[in-house]
Amino acid sequence: MEDIRIYLEGKRLYGDDFDASRIADWLADEKEGYAELGAKDRENYRYGYHAWNRFHGFRHLRPGNFAHVLGFGSAYGDELLPILARIGDITIVDPSDAFLQESIHGVHARYVKPGSNGSLPLESGAFDLVSCLGVLHHIPNVGAVVEELARVLRPGGQMLLREPIISMGDWRKPRRGLTRHERGIPVDILETMLERAGFIVRHRALCAFPLTPRIFRMLPAGPYNSKFATVVDATLSTAFAWNVNYHPRNALQRLRPTSAYYVVEKRSPQKV
Predict the structure, then answer these.
(1) What pLDDT, in 10s, does the model give residues 50-104?
(2) How far apart are CA 114 and CA 161, in angstroms?
(3) Domain 5-208+259-266: which topology?
(4) Per-residue b or e along 251-261, where b marks 16 or more CB atoms closer than 10 Å to that residue's CB
(5) pLDDT, tens digit (0-9, with 9 covering 90-100), for 189-219
(6) How many whole angstroms separate alpha carbon 248 and alpha carbon 227?
(7) Is 29 exposed, middle or buried (0-12, 13-18, 19+ CB in 10 A)?
(8) pTM for this one?
(9) 87 vs 68: CA distance, rounded Å
(10) Cα-Cα-Cα-Cα dihedral sign, residues 188, 264, 165, 8
(11) Of 27-31, 138-142, 209-213, 268-272, which range is least confident?
């Protein structure tokens, strides 16, 4: 077993430097990971982050419509429901066949699969908006995939991005409720990847304070489908932003926001 201290310390991102063979094996393992956690049971599946997305994401988008939207790892596309009236058509990239459908509440949808290395079989500059919510931490070569998302987004186009920024425990061991390989992305590394790919951060928020699900455990739809709970979570996350760390060593270090939410824009080419 390799020494992963440098990764647990958040100095490097585990998996981002893997060779092609290890990347392919990882992605094959994760192919049905989300579906097998219960998402493939459409009848009982409930999307739990609508208030979160409105508060941290949608209200920071530019006004107007989005002709072509990419949902990266978006399963049934439920995350897009609040802005569906503003969308022309939807493309969803997902490795699993569990979520296939021809439309999302009347809006045409097509499903495509990523390549074995995470590449996207999509034209450059084809999309006005990309939604990538809680997906990159399932992928080994995050930096390369961020660059792919930038490639398929038109200059001036926007992307919604949310990711855990903590280790999520020791990923060498089974963890209840998590897929085999997923691990969070250190916030400094994530922001460096966004900058290198040509993104400008238009809005950034820390969220997912560990006590929020406990405080609001009685909410039937979950805390992040509640505007009030989302605001409380944002307040606590801001108050404890000083305590952000990747792999906590004591109880105090666990009291910190565990995710980051971004609205980013693809930089337009500079005119000569």
Answers:
(1) 999 999 999 999 999 999 999 999 999 999 999 999 999 999 999 988 888 898 8
(2) 18
(3) Rossmann fold (3.40.50)
(4) eeeeebbbbbb
(5) 999 999 999 999 999 999 999 999 999 999 9
(6) 29
(7) middle
(8) 0.93
(9) 7
(10) negative
(11) 268-272
Residue 226: both structure tokens together: 């509640």
